[in-house]
Amino acid sequence: MTNTESRSGRLVYRLAFQIPVDMQAVEETLLLAILAVGCLYGEAAVRLDAGYAIDADERVVVIDASTETGRAVARVFIGFCTREFGDDTFSVARTDGPSPKRPSAAARHPCESAA
After folding, report:
1. Where are the chain's structural domains?
2. What is the pTM of this model?
């Protein structure tokens, strides 16, 4: 595999949420999933390997599933969403795509309180 091939796309999970699911609640649930995975893999592993992006306007969350840590975040997040919002309120697509953009500084540190 060449560098071009390895950078051209990654395995990602794309979750699309239906109305009336509250996207703020979705983001909070994602941060909780990241916190949970951080307890298992360590904060450094999550910061290095768990890429994601949220587009509230499009009602979509994309999670980089090219690493074990990223796949763990996706599994925990999907489990939490199923319990919190219901199995029929979102869809999941596994696809090749660009790496998610890095989240905001506040989102990268879910353990810190927003003062």
Report:
1. 10-98
2. 0.78
